[in-house]
Amino acid sequence: MNQAGLAVTLLREGDGQVPPGVYRIVQEALTNTLRHARASSAQVLLDIDETQVRVRITDDGRGGAPGRGGGHGLVGMRERATLLGGTLYSGPRWDAAGFEVDARLPIREGS
Predict the structure, then answer these.
(1) For the residues of 30-73, what is the DSSP string, one character each?
(2) In a 3-state reduction of DSSP, which class is residue 22?
(3) Dihedral, CA atoms, 104, 84, 19, 32, nearest 10 degrees?
């Protein structure tokens, strides 16, 4: 993403397998950041423990209203999280300027 003008930092905490659907959520969130946020940087946190995978994508852009947008990106991410048995929040960051996508997905037996 650096070639597109967006500096992305990846932080990973914990061990274990990352479900394939997580990567699609990250991809869509970063695409939305490039298209809509006017951000200069983004951070991806993957936090894995025995029960869940948390993925939080934040940016330093302008943000927007919670769960709103003109396209299908946020809806698609929420549907993907639901299909994986989890939840997804999207909206303005509570801790700084910008926008965040925060998904929590359960670790399933055999995954």
Answers:
(1) HHHIIIII--SEEEEEEEE-SSEEEEEEEESS---STT--SSSH
(2) helix
(3) -70
Render the burial of 45-81: b for 16+ CB within 10 Å, e for the rest: bbebeeeebbbbbbbbbebbeeeeeeeebbeebbebb
Would you say residue 52 has pLDDT above 90? yes
Task: Indicate the residue type of 3.
Answer: Q
Average pLDDT, the chain: 87
SS3 83: helix
Binning pLDDT at 50, 70 and 90, where does residue 18 land? confident
The model's confidence at residue 4, banded by pLDDT at 50, 70 and 90, is: low
